[in-house]
Amino acid sequence: MRKLIYGMNVSLDGYIAAPGEDISWGVPSDELFQFWSDQLRATDLTLYGRKLWQTMSSHWPTGDQRPGATPAEIEFARRWRDMSKVVFSSTIDKVDWNTRLVTGDAVAEITRLKAEDGGPMDIGGPTLAGAAMRAGLIDEYVLATSPVLVGGGKPFFSALDSWVNLNLVETRTFPGGVTLTRYETRR
């Protein structure tokens, strides 16, 4: 059975984006970017909701060809482009870059994918992750918390039907006061 991991940069008050989809407060340091790149290297499959897919696919397919791209960005872009991805959406009809589109029941498909043999899966996008959280499918949460209060926007966590108990498995500090915390779901 595969492990499902939900992780993103998050503000101290719990948002992944400020109002207007502003993520400028969460630009990672080189060290934090390398952490996320290492996470990508260890992932067999990434699951995206439509909005995060559109954000990622607008930048990373050619991220290694952009003027001034760092070696870490070049490596990340190549990994991202080559890795297997699944996008869950009922409003788009085409995806590229080693990606499969699922238009049906996301929870049923994620459940099926988790039951397969293979390495870890990442899930991205708070709406899709919220559905997986409510279904009890997420095994690990990774939060890179920036020391900023944005006051509103898109929350990392969605409303839940019941509590999810967690065990802290790692804490780490990055430049700029960003604190990484990893939690496993207590089952």
From TrEMBL:
Protein name: Dihydrofolate reductase family protein
Biological classification of the source: Bacteria, Bacillati, Actinomycetota, Actinomycetes, Kitasatosporales
Coiled coil: none
Lineage: superkingdom: Bacteria
Chain ranges of the Bacterial bifunctional deaminase-reductase C-terminal domain: 2-179
One of the Pfam families matching this protein, by short name: RibD_C
